[in-house]
Specification:
This protein has 514 residues and is α+β, with helices and mostly antiparallel strands. It is built from 13 helices and 22 strands. The structure holds flavin-adenine dinucleotide.
């Protein structure tokens, strides 16, 4: 019997394991379905897409998307120590302060920006976020072109999000610095923390209305672990799946799959939001893009000096802009990558060039994660219903038009060759045939106080005892930025709540800021 079992060693799970085991009297068990994070491509920032469809990737795909020409969109998610922070693009851009304030207004008491800010600051301090070591000349030209266009320099922080900047990164001296590096590894020596990899949790066990442990498959054997509290940190796809497999969710869905109902919660798996992005691909006249990042000399530079093209996180700069003057904060991000990011990152670039990815920051479309079967090893059905709200397509098209205008601006214009995509294709058709995820799913175990909320503002599953969800799935809406840092901030505060410190009252301060 342990005090706390944390399911999933991803961004949130690593924070929880580290912070909770600071209490020497608390026995913490961290269970991770994936393995150790030893692959070299995890450490090398520019290699992140080499991890796609490997053994460290859950390798999900959406159901065919009606408004994306019937395509299934590839959804990588980390299945390894560090979770998605071990294969993400390392961009440290947490969104807008308005995101947190709107969550609080929707019933997430205690999560307004002034309450959340100290926890985000704590996460940023723990990670020691870095500036790009060797930004590509194409990226510098993009930033200058944006300035020339009238987009001013900003910090890309929650209180200064309008503008353009080189992307701050979760790297340490040119190497990826995941949540496992920053949080878990320093805590591994503690006698009260046990971390198990290749341990796939298949359901939560209940007695009455109280979670008492989990069922886990380790080395092919099914075992049970008893715990005082169960914390799900499996991410926005797997946490709702695990709740459903455990009998917590919409009754008719559970009945369809023959799963005994433990507690009806209609919101489990609902309200899925994600960032959709459509990238324009432009060939370049310089021979200096990341196309040549794999040369042996670059590997040598990285190995010996932690410098050069392999330190690139690919998304090297970002401009946050408004598609209309009446929106309260940026609703479009233009992400610059000094490489042709082709076919969802699954195909090698065809030559030198760059990509401007237009990101729909505030989608109105939302979807679901539902069970395909009662088999815990069967991937769930992921249906983000991208572009089901027609205004999303309109915003994305406006963003792409703006991206094109930036390419036409000096000094970028002189380095640009022909536009490879969309070229002459109509922009709406281009979006439908090419748009992909920016990998930021949230909302499937949404926090709040209404009847469709899955967790309350202290992240306890509503109507049950001894069970919390702490990961990106609890966000009521997708933030206007990238989701890694907000997830860490949520987990920092959740750890305080579990330790009985972070009162939900507005204005709560962390006990200490590391
Ligand atoms: C390719 C990619 C690029 C991204 N780029 C960025 C970026 O540049 N900047 C940014 O801010 N965000 C980025 N993100 C998003 C960000 O990384 C995630 O939002 C964040 O890591 C989510 O954290 P989490 O704790 O919710 O889930 P995860 O980090 O995904 O962790 C979930 C963990 O739980 C484990 N798990 C799941 N089910 C079980 C089970 N049943 N039993 C045991 N273990 C289980 C998983 O294996 C995983 O380790 C990116 C994501 C991806 C995939």
């Amino acid at each position: 019997m342990v005090d706390t079992v944390v399911v999933g060693a991803g961004s949130a799970g690593c924070v929880l394991a580290s912070r909770l085991s600071e209490d020497a009297g608390r026995e913490v068990l961290l269970l991770e379905a994936g393995g150790q994070d030893t692959r070299r491509e995890i450490a090398i920032p520019a290699a992140f897409s080499k991890l796609f469809k490997s053994e460290v990737d859950w390798d999900y795909g959406t159901v065919p998307q009606e408004h994306l020409a019937g395509r299934s969109v590839y959804w990588p998610r980390g299945k390894v120590l560090g979770g998605s922070s071990s294969l993400n693009a390392m961009m440290a851009i947490p969104g807008s302060s308005l995101d947190w304030d709107s969550w609080a207004q929707l019933g997430a008491a205690g999560w307004a920006w002034r309450d959340a800010q100290p926890y985000l600051a704590r996460a940023e301090t723990t990670l020691e976020i870095e500036e790009q070591r060797d930004p590509n000349p194409l990226t510098l030209a993009f930033v200058e072109a944006a300035h020339a266009f009238g987009i001013h320099h900003c910090h890309l922080t929650p209180e200064s999000l309008d503008g353009v900047r080189l992307t701050p990164v979760t790297e340490r001296r040119g190497r990826r610095w995941s949540a496992a590096d920053a949080y878990l590894r320093p805590a591994l020596g503690r006698p009260n923390l046990t971390v198990e990899t290749d341990a796939h949790v298949t359901r939560v066990l209940f007695e009455g209305g109280c979670a008492v442990g989990v069922e886990v498959v380790r080395g092919g054997r099914t075992e049970t672990v008893r715990a005082g509290e169960v914390v799900l940190a499996g991410g926005a796809v797997n946490s709702p799946q695990l709740l459903l497999l455990s009998g917590v969710g919409p009754a008719e869905q559970l009945e369809r799959h023959g799963i005994p109902l433990v507690h009806e919660l209609r919101g489990v798996g609902a309200h899925l939001e994600d960032h959709l992005t459509g990238g324009i691909l432009v060939s370049s006249t310089t021979g200096d893009s990341l196309y040549t990042a794999e040369k042996p000399l670059e590997l040598l530079r990285w190995l010996l000096l932690r410098r050069g093209k392999l330190t690139s996180n690919v998304g090297e700069a970002a401009a946050f802009v408004r598609s209309r003057p009446d929106v309260p904060a940026p609703d479009v991000e233009i992400l610059f990558a000094p490489v042709l990011f082709e076919e969802e990152g699954l195909a090698p670039p065809r030559g030198h060039g760059f990509t401007l990815g237009t990101v729909l920051l505030q989608p109105r479309s939302s979807g679901t994660v539902t069970l395909r079967s009662a088999d815990p090893f069967d991937p769930p059905a992921i249906d983000p219903r991208y572009l089901s709200d027609p205004s999303d397509l309109d915003t994305l098209v406006r963003g792409i038009e703006l991206a094109r205008r930036l390419v036409a601006q000096e000094p970028l214009a002189s380095l640009a060759g022909p536009e490879l995509e969309p070229g002459d294709a109509p922009l709406d058709e281009f979006v439908r045939s090419r748009a992909q995820t920016l990998y930021h799913p949230v909302g499937t175990c949404r926090m709040g106080k209404d009847e469709n909320a899955v967790v309350d503002p202290e992240l306890r599953v509503r109507g049950l005892e001894g069970l919390r969800v702490v990961d990106a799935s609890v966000m009521p809406h997708v933030p206007r930025g990238h989701t890694h840092l907000p997830t860490l901030a949520i987990a920092e505060r959740a750890a305080e709540l579990i330790r009985g410190r972070g009162a939900a009252a507005s204005g709560a301060q962390p006990a200490s800021v590391a």
